[in-house]
Every structure is written in C-alpha cells, then in structure tokens.
Amino acid sequence: MQLDILKNEEKRTNFVMFLFYAVVPLVAFLYVLLFNGGAVKDSIAVTMVLLGILVKLLEKKLGKYAKYLYVSILPVLGTVTIICGTPRAFGAMAEAYFLILFLAVSYYDLSTIAVYSVVLIVSNAAGLILFPDAYLCMYTLSIWIFILMVYALAVLAAVMIVTRARALFDTVETK
Q: Which of 9, 45, 70, 160 is the most exposed place for a label (fewest CB within 10 A)?
C-alpha cells in the first residue's frame, strides 16, 4: 500500500543514496590510500560511485526498482572490495553495511530492508566461502559471526521502526 504521505520519501531517500555513493567510496579510497597504506587496487571501491551515477541516470526508467539497486550496490561491491582489495581497504566495510541499512529505513518499506539483507548476506557468505583468506585476513571467523549477530539485531530494529512508522503515517493519513 502506497501512502500519499510517503509519496516523496522514496525520491528523497534515492537522492540521499545517490549522494552517499557519489562521495563516500571516493573519500574512503583516498583515506585508505593516503593514511592506511592502501594500494591502487583498492580503487575497486570507487566503482560504487559509477554505479550510483548509473542508477541515478536510470532512476525514472527504473521506477520503484531504483531503491533496490541503490541498497544493493554496497553489499555487492563491498564483497568485491574485500576480495580484490587489500585488508586496509575494508576496515570500515561492516560499518558501511550498517549505514546503508539505516539509510534504507527511510524508505519506510520492509521490502527494501529484505532485499538489502538478502543481497548483503548472500554476497558476503559467497565471498567468505569462495575466498576465505580475503575475509579472514582482517577479521576472524568469530568476529564475522558476531557482526552477523549484531546485524540481525539491527535488521530487527529496522523492521520495528519501519512497521511502527508506517502505522503512524497510516493513522495520520486516515485522520
């Protein structure tokens, strides 16, 4: 059910997601390169900027599916960055995953959180299984399991927030 009160929220959140992808991967790469001793191969993270721009350019044609692409860029390319980059390139990747989850809350749509969670878990689980050395060079398996547990709680909180917010918006719109 599309609430009239939320009709512009998706556009606003898409714009915030676009800004995130236009700035954060580039700044993160430069930080890693300048201060963490990263390498040129860590620039793989900058492809998120290009994908963010591509989704923005196709946003009208994609319609309601643009939000699913926005929330999928970081999990997929985060996995690629972890596999192809140096361990210095993904020191804050888990934190970035949480940030996108919380940005996804502002869509006020449970399907967006579900898509993001599935893409995040599937892509990183596949990465961990296929390239365990890349994943375990920075974090131990127990730390990855802890991150997954905390992520599950964060998803639960996100679902609770979205469900309650939508109920409140529905009440406001009805009255």
A: 160
Is there a contact between 48 and 93 (Cβ–Cβ < 8 Å)?
Answer: no
CB neighbour burial string for 54-88, b if at least 16 within 10 angstroms, e if fewer: ebbeebeebeeebbbbbbbbbbbbbbbbbbbbbbb
Distance CA 129, CA 127 (A): 5
pLDDT digits (tens, 9 = 90+) for 2-39: 677 777 889 999 999 999 999 999 988 888 888 888 78
What tokens does 79 get?
């996995």
Tally the C-alpha atoms within 13 A of residue 163's C-alpha that lie toward its C-beta: 7
Sign of CA dihedral 132, 136, 141, 145: negative
How far apart CA 43 and CA 46 sit, in angstroms, is: 5
